[in-house]
Design goal:
With 170 residues, the protein is mostly helical. It has one domain: Skp domain (Protein Binding, DinI Protein, Chain A, 2-Layer Sandwich), CATH 3.30.910.20. Helices cover 78% and strands 5% of the residues. It contains six helices and two strands; from the N terminus they run αβααααβα. It has a two-stranded parallel sheet with strand order 1-2. It is elongated and about 80 Å long. It starts with a helix and ends with a helix.
Length: 170
Amino acid sequence: MKWLKVLAAVMIMSVAVPAAAQLKIGVVDLRQALFTSNAAKSFSEKLKSEFQGQEAKVRKVHDEAQKLKDRLDKDGAMMSDAERNKVASDFQDKVKEFQYLKNKLDTAVDNRKQSFLDGAKPLVDQSLQEIVKERHLDMILPREAVVYALPSMDVTAELIDKLNHKQKGK
C-alpha cells in the first residue's frame, strides 16, 4: 500500500515538472513604466505648474513660522512675558496654518496623481495584454514580488515604449 502511494507521487511529479518548465513568465516594474512614460513626464510638469502658487504659499508660511521660532530662541529670554507669549502664540498659529496648507496641498496633489493613475490603467492593461500575446507569456508578475528574474523576462521597457507610442496617437 505504501509502495502504491510512492509510485503515485512519482507519477504526479513527473507530469507536473515538465508542465511547470513550459510556463512563460514576464516581469514588469509598473511604477517605473508609469512614471517614466512621456505622459507621466508631461503630467508631472503640468502638476508642478498647477500647484506652484500653493507651494509658494506653504513655503512662505513655513519661513514665517521659522522666523518666529528663531526670534523666540534668540530673544525669548530678554522679552517680557507678554511679548514672549504673543510671539509664542503667533508661532503656534503659523505652525497650524502651515500644517493646514501643507495637508490641503498634499491631498490635492495626491488626488491628481490618483486620477492620472486611474486614467492610465486601461492603457497599461491594454499594453500588457499586447505584450502577453506578442511574447506568448502565460503570466506577468510585478517586479516587487520577484526575488530574481532574468533580464530577458523584464517587459518594463516594452511597456514604456507601448505607452509612449499610444500616447502619441491620442
